[in-house]
Design a protein that fits this description.
Elements: E1 2-5, H1 10-22, E2 31-34, H2 53-56, E3 64-68, H3 73-81, E4 85-88, H4 93-115, E5 123-127, H5 131-142, E6 146-150, H6 154-160, E7 166-168, E8 181-184, E9 203-206, E10 219-221, H7 225-229, H8 231-246
Parallel strand pairs: 1-2, 2-3, 3-4, 5-6, 5-8, 6-7, 8-9, 9-10
Helix pairs in contact: 1-8, 4-5, 4-8
């Protein structure tokens, strides 16, 4: 049994610790290559390193499993051509829900620690109602915040209204000035500069990866919340799903 890892940080350390302890070496996998989350930002280099994806996977053989998050298609095809197999956490629904929970809790914890007031005294907007958005809304309501959701899913919006949630479609974002905080979970540029007016106003927290909100004032980017705020828990979640594939 051989484990080759790329990337660093608390999440990776905990992931590797658990893998080394729990991997039984059963099945047809003898070598494990563990790539970070996200695996790459430019589809060329392994995140946080100067190592190319090709270099990271050059040792792949028929008994190799490559684990990562957002593994580019050409890399996956290259692994498969040499008889190796892929575990991509981005395609694992169970991992995505667990990661979404940590992201939502982390964002709310950051707000509580930096605002100096209770969420029950705030009106919070959430852009997007996917995995992270749903978790955010649930926790925000539990903590007593006034919540407004912007989504393109009309069915989701209609289901929220009975819970006292204000609902808007994506094209109706000109009213964000009435919010205390706006949390973006949508991986697309839905917020426009014209929606953000004046020097003071709504605090904007961006949980979506990418540069979709570049140029808009007062945007606080919070990438990789689980890794930064819950390195042990997020490392265990990653290892747990890899182990499910291995064993």
């Amino acid at each position: 049994m051989e484990i080759i890892s790329f990337g660093a940080g608390g999440r990776m350390e905990e992931c590797l610790r658990l893998l080394r302890r729990e991997w039984r070496g059963t099945g047809d996998i003898g070598r494990l290559i563990v790539l970070p989350i996200p695996t790459t930002k430019d589809k060329k280099l392994v995140t946080g390193t100067d190592i190319t994806l090709a270099e990271a996977t050059e040792s792949v053989t028929e008994d190799t499993l490559v684990a990562g998050y957002g593994i580019p298609e050409d890399v996956a095809e290259g692994v498969a051509s040499r008889g190796g197999s892929i575990y991509d956490a981005l395609l694992d629904g169970e991992f995505l829900w667990e990661n979404a929970e940590m992201t939502a809790v982390g964002a709310i914890a950051r707000i509580i620690c930096t605002e100096g007031r209770q969420l029950s005294d705030m009106k919070v907007g959430v852009v997007g109602f996917g995995r992270i958005g749903k978790r955010l809304v649930r926790h925000l309501l539990y903590l007593g915040a006034q919540v407004r959701v912007y989504s393109g899913n009309r069915g989701a919006l209609s289901s929220l209204a009975p819970y006292g949630v204000e609902v808007r479609e994506y094209g109706e974002m000109s009213d964000i000035a009435s919010l205390d905080i706006l949390i973006n979970t949508a991986p697309a540029r839905l917020l426009r500069e014209s929606d953000v007016k004046g020097e003071d106003g709504v605090r904007i927290i961006d949980l979506a990866s990418g540069n979709f909100l570049s140029g808009i004032p007062r945007v606080e980017k919070m990438p990789s919340v689980p890794s930064e705020m819950f390195p042990v828990s997020s490392g265990r979640a990653y290892a747990k799903r890899i182990l499910a594939r291995l064993n």
